[in-house]
Amino acid sequence: MTGTDKRLHRRLAKADDLDAVFAIYMHEQVVPYLGYDPMPITAFADIFNELVASRSFFIYEDGAQIAGFYKATRYPGRAQHVVQLGALAVRPDLHGSGVARAMIGDAIACLRIDDVRRIELYVESDNPRAIRFYESLGFQKEALLRQFYKRADQDHYIDEHVMSLIFDDSV
Fold first, then answer.
1. Which of 37, 17, 42 has the alpha carbon at shortest distance from 26?
2. CATH class as words, domain 8-166
3. What is the pLDDT of residues 51-76, one digit of tens each?
4. 118 SS3 class
């Protein structure tokens, strides 16, 4: 992380992360972009338990505090070289600090070592900061999913971009 000597480290999420993940997930700066509308922790617990059970939901810690998280879902069969990143967020007080870049950079490095050739993600068209961030990491827009997303507090639908990062080792 920029400006501090604390090290970020990655680990699988565990059950006792619920409160900290919920606080980030439902924060007013984060919740519009994570696929679920605001809800009480009792309702979120089921979603969180599925994330933990997937064994593909990773927590990034800065010391003893959760700094961010993401889920990396590997496709089966013929698409096993593809991973979809989702449920990706950084604690709002750390926005702009380099945590997201370190976290996703580490994820990309780990996935590449694990024979992943394509990483894909979805990003809302009304989130230009995230689009610029992913583009700065080498992701490219591939498709536009029109009217894909609707937040409960809005009367209109949001388009979603499919973005990907492809490792072409033959070049």
1. 37
2. alpha beta
3. 999 999 999 998 889 999 999 999 99
4. strand
